[in-house]
Amino acid sequence: MKQFIKMVENNQHLLFDEMLQASTLMFQDETALHDIQAFLIALAKKGETAHEVAALATVMKSFALEVAAPPARYMDNCGTGGDGVNSFNISTTAAFVMAGAGAKIAKHGNRKISSAAGSSDVLEALGIHTDLSVDETVELLNTHGIAFLYAPNVHPKLKRIGQVRRQIGKPTIFNLVGPLTNPVTLDTQFTGINRPEFTMEYAAVMKMIGRDRGIVVCGAGGMDEASLAGQNDFVLVDHEDLIPFSLTPEDVGLKSAPLEAIRGGNADENAVIMRTILSGKQDAYFDTVVFNATIGLFAYGLVNRVKDGVDLAIDTILTGKALEKLDAVVAYSEARKKQEVIK
């Protein structure tokens, strides 16, 4: 491991095969935690490359549990996190909207590491348990078309690395890799990053690991979501093509709003915000979810134009379909928990 640390500390980019070796070492119990920490910090300081991200994603997914989901077109809209904006859980809320509109959502997520409330934290606050088995996750996908995969449950090898990430307390390459390691086979993906210079590279990684369609966004104000605060930069992955484009909220008929208008809080506070949005209260929180669900629906292929996705997303919320998805997953989770108690 020390040779790879030295290479990266000397500002040397690792080749794909070199990063495969380094990544495999990170997942070995024999590798010292302080070496993993030094390697991750050095990578972040140097700046990760597409090949390094793709290699780590390949190794991490190879260690994941198998999730034999029924054949379907699945999508993940997990972002990389770490943007420091302290917004509410936008992608988690948008996932219910997209599922309500007919997309099959297998959303990867974790607890807070570099944010106030991670997706798993807010799901538990809503009453959705993160300790569902793989079989229960598959049943949720089959029955309701949406499920949440808690990263430590499906990536058992992440436990030691999670300790290191919490000690570092800042985004690392694992933030970039997380959305790319969903154990469910994905056809399409919508992912936000907070590094404008890496948007095209991240789209290239998506293509390298086999997504036939996807969208990467770096939002206005440095968000890892589509933002109401100005121009958002996207790259569309369409088979072999990588197509950059930009959008403001006004371009799709939504009102602009500053980042301060969508501040979140702890898990309980964000759960209240989510339910308020899905109940139809229209404000900046609502429009932010609509904007992101719109991009996701376009990436999934449910609409042919981004603007058409706005009408579909709004209708899905106002007709109660998105909230129905949330309530269905909560009810399923609670029923499984009661069964465990009885047993």
UniProtKB/TrEMBL annotation:
Anthranilate 2 binds at R165. InterPro entries: Anthranilate_Pribosyl_Tfrase, Glycosyl_Trfase_fam3, Glycosyl_Trfase_fam3_N_dom, Glycosyl_Trfase_fam3_N_dom_sf, Nuc_phospho_transferase. Pathway: Amino-acid biosynthesis; L-tryptophan biosynthesis; L-tryptophan from chorismate: step 2/5. Anthranilate 1 binds at G79, N110. Its cofactor is Mg(2+). Residues 73-323 form the Glycosyl transferase family domain. Its EC number is 2.4.2.18. Mg(2+) 2 binds at D224, E225. It is an enzyme of class 2 (transferase). Residues 2-64 form the Glycosyl transferase family 3 N-terminal domain. Keywords: Amino-acid biosynthesis, Aromatic amino acid biosynthesis, Glycosyltransferase, Magnesium, Metal-binding, Transferase, Tryptophan biosynthesis. GO terms for cellular component: cytosol. It comes from the Bacteria. One of its GO terms (biological process) is L-tryptophan biosynthetic process. Transmembrane segments: none annotated. In the C-terminal section; belongs to the anthranilate phosphoribosyltransferase family. Belongs to the anthranilate phosphoribosyltransferase family. Catalyzes the transfer of the phosphoribosyl group of 5-phosphorylribose-1-pyrophosphate (PRPP) to anthranilate to yield N-(5'-phosphoribosyl)-anthranilate (PRA). PANTHER family: ANTHRANILATE PHOSPHORIBOSYLTRANSFERASE. Homodimer. This is Anthranilate phosphoribosyltransferase. It comes from Viridibacillus arvi. The lineage of its organism: Bacteria, Bacillati, Bacillota, Bacilli, Bacillales.
